[in-house]
Amino acid sequence: MDANPPARGRRAFTLTELMVVVGLISVLISLLFPVMTKVRVAANSAKCASNLRQMGLALTMYLGQSNGHAPEYIWNTPSNPNVAWQGYWLGILEEQGVSGASLICPSATEPTGIFVQRGYGNATHCWTGQFASFGSVVRFSDVLWREGSYGYNRYLTAGSFGGSATAIAAVRDFSHTPAFLDCVWADAAPLNGSAEAPETSPPDLTGGQVGPGSPEHWKFLISRHGRGVNVCMADGSVTWVPLEETYTLSWKNDWVKYPLSLPGN
Predict the structure, then answer these.
(1) Longest Cα separation, the chain
(2) Helix axis angle, 15-65 relative to 88-95, nearest 10°?
């Protein structure tokens, strides 16, 4: 008897079996894809919140160094570009070591590059100073500009939040006053309106039609993290706020709060 019988040949997959395997793989992919998408979305939102916490801490450090004096609104100083570039909130944060990637939400990392929008971003794209005027806080020169996914509450500047007050202590509700938030431009000062006469809703929540001349509140009414945005309050806390509830925050001391009615997408 042969001690080493020949090995049996391996049976190949039939076409039917191969199709079954491919089908099973397709089903697994279809089941895993939504899960992976949700994981990625959650991770992006968490990183965004971390960025905002850094920004809030930098603002707190600045306020400590300035004896509580609120940031000045300095946008454009073409005769002396350093004044605008180093001032306002972007210059203040950079002085505290927060700039570059810390100003970019992972859900909106690249600018649109569309000139007609003058550098405004949208729900999935950051804003850019590339098309702004020279000597501004977002564009220093033809080769140096800033980009970001967040905006500053322009009411939180000296003389804006409480009459002529310049000290940040004049803010009445630190824990509900936005400082920084997901935004398609570098700042926003929304008009208030009222529940009886609300401000105009944007045509959609993509931010794709927002640009110079658009209502200020359209800048942050974007579905960047689900149907909401991340907000860093004046006290440094960070929270996710549904878009309909952004007007229930205290944008300034005399703000009239009410929920918004917004389009479905």
Answers:
(1) 107
(2) 90
